[in-house]
Amino acid sequence: MKPLGPIPPGFEAIDGELAIGDTPVSDLVGRVGRTPLFVYSRERIARRFAELRAAMPGRLKINYAIKANSFAPLLEYVSSLADGLDIASGGELEMVRATGFHLSRVSFAGPGKRDEELEAAIAAGVTLNLESENEAERALAIAERLGETPRFAVRVNPDFELKGSGMKMGGGAKPFGVDAERVPALIQSIIAAGCDFRGLHIFTGSQALSVDAVIDMQAKVLDCADRLAREAGVILPKLNMGGGFGIPYFPGDEPLDIGAVGAALEDRFETLPETLSQAELFIELGRYLVGEAGVYLTRIVDRKDSYGETYLVTDGGLHHQLAASGNFGTVVRRNYPVAIASRFEAEPDEIVNVVGCLCTPLDRLADKAHLPRAQAGDIVAVFCAGAYGASASPSAFLGQGPAIEMLI
Ligand SMILES: *Cc1c(COP(=O)(O)O)cnc(C)c1O
Questions:
Q1: Domain membership flag for residue 329
Q2: 151-189: b or e for each residue (b if 16 or more CB lie within 10 Å)?
Q3: 388 CA closest ligand 1 atom index
Q4: Residue limits of the Orn/DAP/Arg decarboxylase 2 N-terminal domain (predicted)?
């Protein structure tokens, strides 16, 4: 047997079935007429924002990194709760534009921004988080041609990383950001070129559950920003401190203690150096805001045995849930939280493998899981499906097409 990840708290059964909000999953599936289906809960997202705001210093602003989930109704809802949005492509800019969100509160990071993307962002008043000196030059030339004053922040590749992070994005050679030691000179040159300087962006990694690692990272980010600003001789109007707040996906994972993170930050904010005392301070989060608000529902199509093991074959799989299959940045495959949604209250009584319908051995949703006995027709729930599910999976693979998405 292999353990399953922890089901996020607060999911209840109605008449023996998993309910999301107050609605049993069979009703949700009935509304759209088919599986696979992603269901995202407004109520869960709202609660998550409220808890986070209560834990963090009032001064701290919260941005949503839309790459976690850009389903239009969800994006529109989250943008009503977030202080700003972080995008990483021209395509995401168009998604944000469609929500009517104020584009002056959007920042655009990401290496390899094309000229058309730079142009669209500058024309819209979006802040560009510059990833290189070359990008700064290209963006300045485009702004000049457009007759616009571009809003620039500099993304720093810091000389430290987020410890224990699932995906490291700082520390050593990286395609992201400008190496810290070259940042002061770049700040000076873009200011001299007449940009509207919007400060720094320092993102060091994702999916941290260790409170010590997050507190340590945030302290280093503030120190680093201060040092670079002093070297450049500027006061920072804004600092995006990155994010990295993780959620429990796997057996043994414990939720991040945001109360402790908030208290440490509160302390730091009381003694900010002059370079940061006027700055708008942001964190940027993706999965923490929406990950646990989503459930992926897929129906069992076949139940079969092979050499002593049982397989529940579903109509979903890695083409919608690459991360749950273990193929999105994980080294050792572990089980996500998975349940038989249509028998949510039944006792586990067999060890089964839950797999997808794709003709590849990579397509696994749960290995050797202890679950209630289920048959063809039963619905499987994969939790923690609100981030990097639909937006980060190869839905065209094997001609399967996308899952339905629904915000309730
Ligand atoms: C992906 C990304 C995020 C969001 O990461 P999560 O782990 O979903 O919180 C935030 N900022 C940047 C720069 C990113 O690339």
A1: yes
A2: bbbbbbbbebbbbbbbebbbbeeeebbbebeebbebbee
A3: 8
A4: 43-290
